[in-house]
Amino acid sequence: MASPRQAQHTGPPDGGWGWMIVAGCFLVTICTRAVTRCISIFFVEFQAYFGQDYARTAWIHSIVDCATMLCAPLGSLISNHVSCQVGIMLGGLLASAGLILSSFATNLEHLYLSLGVLTGLGFALCYSPAIAMVGKYFNKRKALAYGIAMSGSGIGTFILAPVVQLLIEQFSWRGALLILGGFVLNLCVCGALMRPIALKEDRKTAPELLEQDYVPEAQKQDLKQMSICSPLIKVWSHECLCYCSWKEYDFLLMPGFMVLAVSILFMAYGCSPLFVYLVPYALSVGVSHHQAAFLMSILGVIDIIGNITFGWLTDRRCLKKHRHFCYLFAVGMDGLCCLFLPVLQNFPLLVPFSFTFGYFDGAYVTLIPVVTADVVGTSSLSSALGVVYFLHAVPYLVSPPVAGWLVDTTGSYTASFLLCGFSMIFSSTLLCFARLAKKIKRTHLQSFTNDTGTKQHIWTNGAIAYSVTAELDQKDVEFLAADTNSHSSR
Questions:
Q1: Which of 65, 52, 48 is nearest to 273 (CA)?
Q2: pTM reported for the whole predicted model
Q3: Which of 56, 237, 472, 478 is the most buried (most CB within 10 A)?
């Protein structure tokens, strides 16, 4: 199969075919995240049909989310080394097959494998590559582009939630899953839209590695004199490719990314159970089935407003430098919403909750790829997003069953929702303190360098460090540099 033709650009075009990429990503988020959210509408049906408790039934939604995030690096790998188009099309076929097979399920274990593992794997191959592709086409309007693309999750939930409820009533849960299986085949169409783009900052291919600085000059001359078929060429190329593979993931050691990763673990633990238990909780306090599904629709449509408005606002000059704080503010507000949820026990009170939680959920979901790109850069964005969504996997797998176990044990949803709220607030607080510490450190460094007109130069002689403060001219600097090089050569 011929490799897709890549458009050559020195930088992100910020438009043109990029808007088709945004449209494709918009459809991908509808077919993946919105469909995943709507699985919670099947919760009561599965529980009644198979006669199982909350914890065992909750594993279905957990496995879908976990597989989607756990296999996200696999999606990034296929996107980087084969093609984004191939990855998304393959994912669409797998997700559709999983949903269709689920319609023939005879027990929960069958659903764990088909709806959980197979459908989740298909979603994983589609989700992170599509999101990363938007980042490659946009720079100045990146947050707005992501806001539009990620709003597919909200608008998809708004439309699909009542539609799925209607399908269940008309065709049973088996017929609804079969129809959803046909619907997610649209992921193959989305994959066809993902035209590859070659940016100047992208890593070089193996033949171009001769130009890289990390290759010794003497080795370059030897390689130029050798035959292209020489085994030594192949060994050297393999070493360079291994080096480039490591360079794809060198962001893992960045302190900023480490803090973001820990924060995401707690955020993912807090956000997942609400989408599983909002409908069952509403039903338990006397809300009708249609009103409970309507709560999910409200959450979805307000999610869209959060996606687009936060994306547009954080692209403004006044807020562009404060995207991290906008992200942690949105996560913290969602945590507060979860803390208040147990006292909201009728439909008129649950509607404002859906508005508030939906808005800030859309806000921080939009900012996850933007904040990640700010930390690691555009060239590593695809790999970084694969890791970021991989980090969602364990919390998504564990949190709904843990919340279900708390419901079964206590007979109330209060403990589950409080645990979710505190987890998200801790995530926000952790990132806030890390950003403040970094800002204080930067301020101290700036004040230190601007303290006097003198300059401090430090060099080493063996294991002993000497520090001399003086007014030095250019010749002194050159002398110190030469002296340092002579010591290091010894």
A1: 65
A2: 0.62
A3: 56
